[in-house]
Amino acid sequence: MMLYPSLKQEILEEKNNDPHVKKVLELFSEPFAKPLASAPSPRFIKSHLPITLLPPKLLESKVVYVARDPRDAAVSFWHMGSSIRTMSFDGDFKTYWNLFMKDLLYWTPFFEHLKEAWEQRNNPNLLFIFYEELQKDLKGVVHRVADFLGKTYTEEQIIELCDHLNFKNFKTNPAVNSDLLRDIGLVHDKHEFIRKGKTGGWRDYFDEEMTAQADKWMEENLRDTDLRFPH
């Protein structure tokens, strides 16, 4: 992530050159590879990049890939694009959806990203899970991830972790809710970075035409694969 120079200066001026804000902005202006290379092992790294844009030896490490229904993903992406000042999309969702399907947005194309990971689902170093599984059976997925990482936890620890990951608690966790980004002005005050976390919420945004478009788009992109989204 590299901040646009003009936006960086704008934030500094708004915050009156607050030294804390300046330090954080300088951190975000540095390439992420440098601090990652010096971080002690084992390291946890989150990325939205597709496998082909990550290091060639990626799958020599453990990788957990989380997939989501593209309709819900598009809604979530639209809200995020509207909330972050480096993106600041101010159009309606229908316009955004058409851009999303045509692969004209950051982090698209969606299906190429997804199918790259699906093709590696039998690799012993990749665990492919669906966001919908997390919603339906969080405890079961926690056990699967622990087994995948070679970790053993007591039942009490699993219960405690599931409570920590419960969306109600997750939403209020400052470590994931971008409180710092809001404090330094990268996230608009009126937006929630962590919103609802539910599945099937796309139905509140799609009209009949968009639903038909989505059905056709998904069918065309899944035609050459056995990948299917849980519903």
TrEMBL record:
MF annotations from Gene Ontology: sulfotransferase activity
One Pfam match: Sulfotransfer_1
Domain of life where this protein originates: Eukaryota
Protein name according to UniProt: Sulfotransferase domain-containing protein
Keyword Transferase: yes
Coiled coil feature spans: none
Sequence ranges assigned to domain Sulfotransferase in this UniProt record: 33-225
InterPro entries: P-loop_NTPase, Sulfotransferase_dom
Family statement drawn from the similarity comment of this UniProt entry: Belongs to the sulfotransferase 1 family.
Keywords: Transferase
